[in-house]
Amino acid sequence: MAAPDHPHSSQRRGRPRSAAADRAILAATRAALVEVGWGRLTMGEVAHRAGVAKTTLYRRWAAKSELVLDAVAVLFDELELPDRGCLRADVEGVVLSFAALLRRPETKTALMAVLAESTTDEALRSRIRQAIVDRQKRLVLDGRSRAQRRGELPPDPADPAETAQVVDLIFDVIAGAVVHRSLVSDRPVDEAWARQFATLLLDGLGAVSPGPRPCPPEAQGPLPSSAEAGARQRPGER
Amino acid sequence: MAAPDHPHSSQRRGRPRSAAADRAILAATRAALVEVGWGRLTMGEVAHRAGVAKTTLYRRWAAKSELVLDAVAVLFDELELPDRGCLRADVEGVVLSFAALLRRPETKTALMAVLAESTTDEALRSRIRQAIVDRQKRLVLDGRSRAQRRGELPPDPADPAETAQVVDLIFDVIAGAVVHRSLVSDRPVDEAWARQFATLLLDGLGAVSPGPRPCPPEAQGPLPSSAEAGARQRPGER
Amino acid sequence: MAAPDHPHSSQRRGRPRSAAADRAILAATRAALVEVGWGRLTMGEVAHRAGVAKTTLYRRWAAKSELVLDAVAVLFDELELPDRGCLRADVEGVVLSFAALLRRPETKTALMAVLAESTTDEALRSRIRQAIVDRQKRLVLDGRSRAQRRGELPPDPADPAETAQVVDLIFDVIAGAVVHRSLVSDRPVDEAWARQFATLLLDGLGAVSPGPRPCPPEAQGPLPSSAEAGARQRPGER
Amino acid sequence: MAAPDHPHSSQRRGRPRSAAADRAILAATRAALVEVGWGRLTMGEVAHRAGVAKTTLYRRWAAKSELVLDAVAVLFDELELPDRGCLRADVEGVVLSFAALLRRPETKTALMAVLAESTTDEALRSRIRQAIVDRQKRLVLDGRSRAQRRGELPPDPADPAETAQVVDLIFDVIAGAVVHRSLVSDRPVDEAWARQFATLLLDGLGAVSPGPRPCPPEAQGPLPSSAEAGARQRPGER
DNA sequence: AAGTAAGCGAGACGGTACGTCCTGTCTTTTC
DNA sequence: GAAAAGACAGGACGTACCGTCTCGCTTACTT
């Protein structure tokens, strides 16, 4: 996952590359992102923090953007979709979790910077989709099938392309709205906003594909723990 | 509008700043953005293209990000909301116009780069909101009042805060979804997607605030000309 | 003397140049030389100290070196040759006076810097000779004629070119040796050194042109007051 | 010799500094001095001529003055004291050699500029003495002991401090007079002047310390070849 | 008294060089 | 043969001065 492209398949000759160095470099990258942000992040600084020579970095990653992408992609994998009882609550939960992740300094600075770089670099754009975007569509798919199991949503239509289209739309709307609210409008993504947004999304969905049934008020579980876990300082990260 | 902060109110002493230099610099910045993108854009290159000394740049803008912001902000002002007959058509129109604007290389590279910088710079964040985000909320407000005039939407509620909240939500959802679809998912924002998205939005809106009436099919006007005008090379811009 | 080249011959039209500005500029130049030396002396700084615009400087002096030359040349005019009773004592006196002048920070930094500039600028070289070098040959001529009046030296030979040659030699030897001792060898020019040097010079002179008679010990007057006056802070100079 | 301060004692880690770069930089500095003089000499230009990055210069020399000092100091080492048969002829020879060296554009512009800088920089002053002044006292010492071997001068006095004092005086007088004649008075140091000066010096010396015997006319050898060698373009220097 | 021509303080202007920082490559020795 | 160390060529940075150029006054002589 966060490993760089080692075509080490069958053990090559000479000294093998140090896996510890990989881990140290990615951790150092995240730490440096927190402290200085993308703009002042330098390869030399990362190498120094990781106790590694610059050559070792360049042997593994071709560019700063790829290193940073690998360093933060793993953080997005920590997003979860806890079962809060009904679809609306699950949507609110994932919105709040995602917003919490975007509140972490390394995540927001790295994500936006890498996206900015990708506007002029198709290869990087593809790498971002692969490492972050497409991986997190699982959240939509999971929430969808869970709602179907609960009977809140009808089963998938016969044509899988139609499903994919709706999933893409939902993902773009959720991710786009949360990012825009958090990083552009710079206003808090709190429970009130999440509720309002979930309402808009779910009622709107009913028009796009057969809609959800209303959510019984007593069914809502607690807020997902990960929503706040993201904001806490993670132990052992540096 | 795109002028840097000249507190020249009452004629100050000494030689006044050259307005021609301002224009040349902003035009050179846009041209350079098209050719080399944000990453390879240098202050020296901009100065050279504008036939201006570097000091003249730094006298007006403290940082590359502020210069670029001023250079592209004016492009967002060209967005219009042509009357296409009904609210749904107006939404589709603005979505397509905005997507066309984001297809221009200078717009997308500059917007994302400036947003990335702004994640660690509150002053820049505020400046972006002022120069771009808040200015374009006029599109939502215009569309809204036009629909109210048509009778498609009920009049504003008594509490103006409530209206503001809904307008913000709509703006975050539209802008966020279009940006995410265009620049992250990297899939086309075409008429089919715009229709699907407008459906989701308008039906969702009905749940958030009293909803729109259905759109008479015969009422839809033509696509806004600006949707494609943005993608064309602008004459005389060098 | 310290006035720049005003070809104001017959009163020109328009507002006349301010003589106060001239004085303020030269004083500011000397003050700045003391504080920051030649290397960090800037035209802008001088203008600011003098309460004058840069244009006013450039209207009068074409280059920093010319301004500085005019500013310090006047200091060399303060050198005097007090009558200390015999030629040897007069020589020692002028050596000590000159060394005291070279101990002043503005004098030494300006003199050497202007000489350095002049190695690649014939016009400046000529201007230096005119403003400083040739003017101070009067000291040698005065000392010489005084010694002749005392009978310590024979009258000038018939050929004035021969006299000029010897005067030049004496001047080069005195000025050169004192400057070298002070600024290159960086060792003190004290009474002991002055005595030793005067001995070498006067005895050597006897071989070049008919020599001096010995100096009666009781004839030596006091040290010239100007020898130390130069080292004191001059009142009212800034 | 002209190498900058490498405390590389026992082979350090990492890539060692390039000795070829050192040589190229010093040669480029001399060449640039000839062409543009001290005033227009820039670090960037030197780096460019030497085919080296500016950082490589700054890694070795902290300031332009130190670089230039190292670049020209080596030229002063080429001064020699050929045996011309008697002390007077040797003095004339060294005076002419020194004057020839000061006729070279790089030498005069660099020497005076570095001395000017040194008036406000004690460290540089000390570095100049070490690299140029004290090294060339060997010429006085050599001439002196050679004259003693010939019997033209008595052996050194018992007190070595007395000898040092006289040597310093001689050096200041010779170097000072030649520099002043050449660069300040701007008059030629030719054989006639050298003869007159040598006469003054040697006869004067007799009064300071026990003097030289007269020089037998038939003993004078030819002019030192180095007197003119310095003015010729040196082969293979760039 | 009005006109006019230069001087003047202020500060923007096109430039040049500065000395620093970072990039990505290379050459060493050590493991 | 990978790794740490650090020198290397290159290039952009943001700053400091340069010497010139407008500006809107001010000052004195000319009519």
From TrEMBL, chains A, B, C, D:
Protein name in UniProt: TetR/AcrR family transcriptional regulator
Keywords: DNA-binding, Transcription, Transcription regulation
Region feature (Disordered): 208-238
The organism's place on the tree of life at top rank: Bacteria
Domain HTH tetR-type: 19-79
DNA-binding segment(s): 42-61
Classification via PROSITE patterns: HTH_TETR_2
